[in-house]
Amino acid sequence: MTSLFFILRLTLATMISYIIVSAILVENYLRHIFWHPDDFFVTLGFLLAAIVISNAFSHVRRVRLIANEVNASTLSSRQRRQIEIPFEAGEAFDMIDAAIRELPGSEVVESARDSLQVQARVRRAAPYTHTGLPRMRLLAFMEPRPNQILATITPNGEAGSVTLICEPARNAWTDWFMVDHGSNLENAEAVTRAITRRVAQRRRGEQAEARQTVTEKELTVAKLSLLHAQVEPHFLYNTLASAQLLTRSDPALADEMLGNLILYLRHSLPRTEQSMSTLGTELERARAYLDILKIRMGARLNLQIEVPAYLRQVELPPMMLQTLVENAIKHGLEPKSGGGTIWIMARSGNGTVIVTVADDGQGFRDDGTGTGIGLRNVRERLRLTYGAAASFSILANFPDGVTATITVPDVSAQGASHG
Hints:
By secondary structure, the chain is an alpha+beta fold. It has eleven helices and twelve strands. It has helices spanning about 1-30, 35-65, 70-75, 90-100, 185-230, 235-250, 250-270, 280-295, 320-335, 375-385, 410-419; strands at about 80-85, 105-110, 115-120, 145-155, 160-170, 275-280, 300-305, 315, 340-350, 350-360, 390-395, 400-410.
């Protein structure tokens, strides 16, 4: 029924206009030239009505092919769409601008990013008027006129609302007599599809990035757990062997060694409920480890700790301080015949906490002793935990030994300054 009314409306509008123009011409000009002008104009009127009906019917059929339905909205030669893009106005502008530029037949595109507007002229191919015959200037008025597109983006918080208008590049009153064969409906649908595709592509990219982030986070946690689990087994074996010997010669000292071993293991076992430790906890672990070694090494090992009480709550990755202490013992003091001293120090400043482990052992040697796995683990764990906000350095101590320094952000100080 809608199709029938549409065809009748175009036919009536055209015929009424034709009758008025014909009457004026016949009455004022042609009656004195032709003997029977009325018959000529009646015949011409029937021919014009046939052309209009055929053109309107073709328009209806093409609209049905494009939209799969025919109603007042789809039959209109002027299409309006309201598109909500879930990105900020600048990104929405880029999407609509690219979609219009890639539209088939897009010839002239003018875009203004500051005013968030895009205007375009789109060449219209009329499938029912291009016959391939030589062009006749007399029928030039029947040549398809270009269509035009106007897109305006309105910021809406974190989103952009696009008002899209697709219409013929002619006056609105001509819609009573002319059709666009669904070309503007096609343009509006094409731009809408392009925006939908671009938004979906952006969402897929964000989801892939999120999945990659989750995967990288899981890998990071796995690496940290693996590094945390790298406890030196020889230390455990040697301690138990020493305790076994002391049970015969000095049971009290053996009991003290086993107590220190229990304290050390209590702090060394991985805890899944938290990934970070504190400087105080790590210091207790290192102290238990060194007390065990002091029983084994005797007067060859001295220990000096200079860690203020207010820094003991500073967060620190677990086993990191322990790695530096073990490195100082294994490569610095144990190979030295007279032993030496280990210093554990901490200080704060400029939003960072600096933890230093120093010894006066043999220092750097040219024989390449050691694999460097422990120090590489320290650097890797600092990178995984803090990124570029942390650092690690190892230098020669004066006059003998090595100084290893870890610098990490003081999270408690940063939180207090922000508060």
